[in-house]
Amino acid sequence: MRDLRVVRGRAVVLERLSLTVARGVVTGLLGPSGSGKSTLMRSIVGVQRVAGGTVDVLGEPAGAPSLRRRIGYVTQAPSIYADLTVRENLRYFARLLNASLEQVDEAIETVGLGRHAGHVVGRLSGGEQARASLATALLGSPELLVLDEPTVGLDPLLRRDLWDTFQRLAAAGKSLLVSSHVMDEAERCDRLLLLRGGRLLAWGTPAELRERTHAQALDDVFLRLIEAQ
Amino acid sequence: MSARATWATAVRVLAQLRRDPRTILLIVGVPCLLETLLKEIYSGRPAVFQHVGGPLLGLFPFVSMFVVTSVTMLRERVSGTLERLMSMPIGKLDLLTGYASAFAVMAVAQATLVSLLAFGLLDLHVAGPRWGVVTLAVGNALLGMGLGLLVSAFARSEFQAVQFMPAVVLPQFLLSGILVARHDMARWLQIVSDVLPLTYAYDALAGIVRGGPYGGRFVLDVGITAGAVLVALALAAVTLRRRTG
Ligand SMILES: Nc1ncnc2c1ncn2[C@@H]1O[C@H](COP(=O)(O)OP(=O)(O)OP(=O)(O)O)[C@@H](O)[C@H]1O
Ligand SMILES: [Mg+2]
After folding, report:
1. Percent of chain B clearing pLDDT 70 (strictly above)
2. Residue pair A58/A131 in contact by the 8 Å Cβ criterion
3. ipTM of the complex
4. CA atoms within 13 A on the CB side of A176
5. Which site in A5, B32, B120, B179 is 20 to 30 Å from B82, CA atoms measured?
6. Which percentage of chain A shows pLDDT scores above 90?
7. pLDDT per residue over A110-165, tens digit each?
8. Candidates A39, A73, A76, A194: which one to mutate for ligand 1, based on the most atoms within 8 Å of Cβ?
9. Distance between first and last Cα of chain A
10. B19 in contact with A at a CB cutoff of 8 Å?
């Protein structure tokens, strides 16, 4: 990604943003609310109108039709049909991706919704809806997963399980870009991108960032980076 | 174009409708109620019912599908599912034809049931073939769907989407000639009605009610109605953006 610039409404949301996301690892995208995380992810997926710069994904320009099978995307708000069951939702998206029905069941298990597979999404809790939305992104074995705050509102146990899943996927060669507010989730990422006010504040492995700032907790790392700016 | 994506979308839209029996009931029940009312209101002047009942049968699906589609599509935009679809391997035309197929199925069901009532119980007579009325009803459903998809791009809320109904549908209805013959209208109203698609849809229906002639004028009416469906769908496709602000 080079010199990406995005204007939404009247505001410049991303300004001269250049960065690289490594393949085969989990990259955490962190930053305060309104820093442009979702906008950055939308640009990578190719659904955001951009005002300048170039974004290349898996060797092709972002938004290229051939990428639509290779990227799994979860929007911040659950984007599934509230009036269908979890399984009906997944079956629909699986048909579009030409994914098998076994994959539907696998994805439902992965996000721990087995018990709710036959339930109408609109009557599930917020966290369950978020998980159903996440499950659809796992269909079709995409090479890159772009997950916008996938673990918000989940209990610690489930969060741990999902992060285990993310790391397992990365170990299997997938690339993941996961945004989060929560610093303790940053610990579980291989690489971090810290975004603030539409600019890249810092990047590197958690260990590198600790060393650079002489702080232990990643919260403090972030604070020191802001102060040093 | 992918038949699989179209089929999957049609099945999905129908599954969503099935979860909403009240809407289905409204789609079928309201026209039945209105046809019955019309019959009763004009019980002293049965000729009026015979004149208006047939065309109305063919125009109901236009109104129903306009409302249902604009709200469904708006939900698709607001809930983020459209954004997800636009990041997935599905063509805009696949999505739209999927929608069109699902609503065509609904329109066939609606027109058939209302016909059974009108022709069977209410003694409605048309001089032309009844299947012609049902076929035109389905065409009008697709026209309503195309316009509904189109206006959903300009609505920010379901409330606005529903308000487009009186704005887009009612004037076309009033000017189509169903209430007052077009040659009795002021000149400028005639000119306005000349460019509204429902005018031609009504003319074609009125042709069947009269029992012909099915000459050039009728063919032109049907052709313009079909053309309007395609134009509305094409414009709707343009409002589906892969990238948004
Ligand atoms: N649809 C929109 N139209 C106009 N401006 C927008 C729109 N969406 C977001 N913005 C603006 O863009 C900026 C970045 O938003 P973005 O959603 O990318 O932030 P974020 O980092 O994902 O925040 P959060 O952590 O709260 O999800 C915000 O200042 C916001 O006001
Ligand atoms: Mg966000």
Report:
1. 100
2. no
3. 0.89
4. 32
5. A5
6. 71
7. 898 999 999 999 999 988 998 999 999 999 999 999 999 998 878 888 889 889 99
8. A39
9. 23
10. yes
Amino acid at A217: A
Instruction: Say which amino acid occupies A18.
Output: S
Q: DSSP alpha helices (H): ranges in chain A?
A: 37-45, 86-97, 101-110, 126-138, 156-171, 183-186, 206-213, 218-228
Nearest to B244 among A49, A68, A88 (CB): A49
Structure tokens at B69: 């589609």
Residues of A in contact with B3 (CB under 8 A): none
3-class state of residue A46 by DSSP: coil
Contacts of A21 by beta carbon, 8 Å cutoff, 6+ apart: A1, A27, A44, A175, A177, A191, A193
A-facing residues of B in 65-104 (CB < 8 A) are 79-81, 83-90
With bands split at pLDDT 50, 70 and 90, how would you rate the model's confidence at B244? confident
Question: Ligand 1: which residues within 6 Å by Cβ?
Answer: A 8-9, 11, 13, 31, 33-39, 76, 181
Fill in the DSSP letter of residue A48. B
C-alpha span between B179 and A22 (Å, rounded): 68
Residue nearest to atom 17 of ligand 1 (CA): A38
Q: Residue of the nearest CA to atom 10 in ligand 1? A: A8
What does the block give as tokens for A108?
Answer: 């439902």
Residue found by looking up tokens 């490594």 in the block: A22
Query: Ligand 2: distance of its center to the CA of A75 in Å?
Result: 8
Q: Are B66 and B185 in contact (CB under 8 A)?
A: no
The H or E element spanning position A3 is strand A2-8
Contact A194, A31 (CB under 8 A): yes
Give residue limits of the domains in chain B.
3-166+232-239
DSSP string, B108-132: HHHHHHHHIIIIIIS----SS-HHH
Cβ–Cβ below 8 Å for B79 and A73: no
Return the percent helix, strand and coil in chain A, to nearest 5: 40, 25, 35
Whether the predicted pLDDT of B153 surpasses 90 = no
Name the residue facing B243 among A48, A71, A78 (closest C-beta). Answer: A48
What is the rounded CA–CA span in Å between residue B101 and residue B112?
16
Contact residues on chain B for A84, CB-CB shorter than 8 A:
12, 15-16, 19
Best CA proximity match to A37, nearest among A179, A171, A166, A203: A179
- Specify the DSSP class assigned to residue A187: T
CA distance A142 to chain B (A): 11
